[in-house]
Amino acid sequence: MKPSEAKQPLPPSVRKYLVQVARESIVRYCTEGRKPAPRFPDPICQAPRGVFVTLTQGEALRGCVGLPWPVFPLEEATIEAAVRAARDPRFPPLVSEEVPLVHVEVSVLTVPEPVEADRALEAVRVGRDGLIVRWGEVQGLLLPQVAARYGWDAETFLAHTCRKAGLPPEAWRWPDVQIFTFQAEIIHEGEEAP
Q: Are 86 and 137 contained in the same domain?
């Protein structure tokens, strides 16, 4: 898939399907301990994409894990992200009794693009961009909706992404730190139409 194709909105049928796949993956994993096999009903689902799955219970985060780089086909990445979110190490593993109580959100990512640190404050568009900060093997990622939810400016967003990586808040200014921006098409369960 070309980067320009990754920025095109997904058709409503694919949006709905991806949320169903994420939900089915969580159910299957929590009840049977295994993942469903991808079915690839649409060629779009076969193209490599980055995906995050966010699980919430009421207003509380219950899991948010994903694959930021387009390594796996979209459907396979959604399955993997959903299972990883169900066992997000920040929380106790999701159990089958909790599955009906969680809300599923799928974020389909564009290909992350590098940003030079000296122009990061101008390049990062809060509310549209997500961020990845990488230093050696250490990496932190925050989805676009996080900065918008908390009303952060670009500098605060960069600082929190550094913290997510376990780095000092000003690490994004270091010469050997890599910064990437990406966008996400966010699909809320029950609101699959764009």
A: no
